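Field guide to reading this record: the first block holds the primary sequence, the second block holds the structure written as discrete tokens, and the final block holds curator observations. Each block starts with its own label. This record concerns histidine kinase, catalogued under organism Thermobacillus composti.

BLOCK 1 — SEQUENCE
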Amino acid sequence: MKLSYRTIKHLILWTPTITIGLWEYLRHTVLLPYVSMDLGNLLAPVIVFIVTVTLLRKLFAKLEATQEELQRERMLKAALEEREQLARELHDGISQSLFLLSVKLDKLDRADCSEAAREVSAGIRETIRRVYDDVRQSIANLRTLPAPGDFSWMASVEALGGEAADAGIRFECEGRLPDRLLTNKEKVELLAIVREAVLNARKHANARTIRVTMEPSEGGGFRCEIADDGVGLGESDLKAFDRYGIRMMRSRAEEMGWRLGIRSAPGGGTTVTVEKDDRAARDDSPRTRLAFHERRKGGSRA
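BLOCK 2 — STRUCTURE
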């Protein structure tokens, strides 16, 4: 039976009082011929101490667990409210602005303009379509219930596989990363990188097969590889400014102190590799992360 927070507090407050009351009642009504007053006074604190050690310690543990659960629920509620607010802002702001741009491009196409202008308009329209799809996906992700910090890593990867299978793509998962190997933050960041790589393979690479390979490494590290058999990208495409997904993956990996590698060639598919070793683990310290943010600020000022 699960005790409520209020019940646990009442038990902690009343248990010592009830214990003393019962002891005094038994001492004066039943044990008085056998236990002297001095011995009874000496046994009273001993009995309270024994009850505290045995019963109240368990109640305090339950109280702490209940407080942590309430704190997680409050944090989850706050996260949901913030995500919903962000989703509304994306829908009411960027999404509608992209739709307005698309309408204006339709008017431009109907106007009397040169063939070169029409080609530029078609390119802009394709870019708007891709950005609009990304915004819609972001809105859907924000409105999806976020996984708690102690979610199962393998279950999350298998859920990605289910999404790929629904899109008609074969999904293969090899190896395992035990949950105990990853911190809560590492689970979230690594899952975001894997999700982005799988999403790129689904939406842009026309892949038929996606393979995710995971294995632990020495020193508490890991290696995760996401490979597809899609159309692939050239070197110039990998460095293109509009590759938002690639920039996001690089940023997440760099902030965590991981190594991220992307190998791709036209017609040869794409492979994304994320690695963390003992050196990377040591580098993922508050001082290193502070230096990383300072470098980013310095670069932005430059």
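BLOCK 3 — OBSERVATIONS
Confidence is low (pLDDT under 50) at residues 280-302.
The longest helix spans residues 37-110.
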